[in-house]
Amino acid sequence: MRLSRAEYKEIVRCIEQLRPTRQCMKMLKERFPNHSQSTLLSIFSLEYQKRTKRTISRHHAPDVIESHYQRYLSEAKARPTAPVLLELANEVDLSPALMARIILDRFLQDLEGGVSSKTVVNSMLKEPSLIPNQTLANNIYQCTINDCCYGPLVDCIKHAIGQEHEVLLRDKLQERNLSFLDENQLRVMGYDKTPDIILEVPIAVEGHIVHWIESKASFGDDHSHRTYLTDQFWSYWNRWHSSRQLRFGPGLVIYWYGFIGELDCQRDRGILLKDCFPTDIVTLCHGTHQD
Known about the structure:
By secondary structure, the protein is an alpha/beta fold. It is 53% helix and 14% strand. The protein has helices spanning 5-15, 22-31, 37-59, 62-78, 84-91, 96-112, 118-126, 134-146, 152-175, 183-188, 222-238; strands spanning 2-3, 180-182, 197-205, 208-216, 240-241, 246-247, 251-255, 259-260, 271-274, 281-283. The strands form three sheets. Strands 2, 3, 4, 7, 9 and 10 form a six-stranded mixed β-sheet that branches. A two-stranded parallel ribbon has the order 1-8. β5 (240-241) and β6 form a beta hairpin. α6 runs antiparallel to α8. The longest helix is centred in the middle third of the chain and has 24 residues, at 152-175. It is elongated, with a radius of gyration of 23 Å.
């Protein structure tokens, strides 16, 4: 789904008033019924991560951590079955999963007399039953399952979705009998930084030559696309591999959950954006390239 920048900004203005709970996604879908749930969730996640990066430092100040922790202890004692940690996270506008990490880390400091290892904290966040306090374990669990942007559950879902779309891309290429090498094959061959797919025979899409395809199971906003251009896409365009004398050259990026339409402005420079697998593919001869 291609969104104009004006449409995108309208969604962002609505997101600014919401918290990262699963209930907020229902509200967002009701407000924008013509946009898919996946697109809205991806935009929300990107925007909330930006908001969190701007504010997270204040929640890590020692006095603020202590205030949050004592508040949790008091509320949990008064209402042992209530999701007090989730309520606190929403009240102070912090991701429930990040609040869970802060409180768990502070709890373990009291329990163990020092700072716990990141491995221990991560294992308890993934499996709250390992936490030696049932009330806290329940609260951590509530935060994890109700956070749609951060936490071990979200990480697993994002990884699975990314893998799913890479498989979808390979299936689409095979359906069209297009010869290609995927990222795993390329690494075995000695490539250090590669797109998801390199086409052994280039194709043309909407009149533009494509040598490689990158799959992004997310929405393409200004910030993420600019970062990808700098860190990935331009380096793909310019990269050579001496053993095969192959230049990656121009390529196609698929943002499966859509992108801001105005970002598709680098076609003449070799970067084409789509929100789905292209249907108007023309297979070119070996050795066809575009400078």
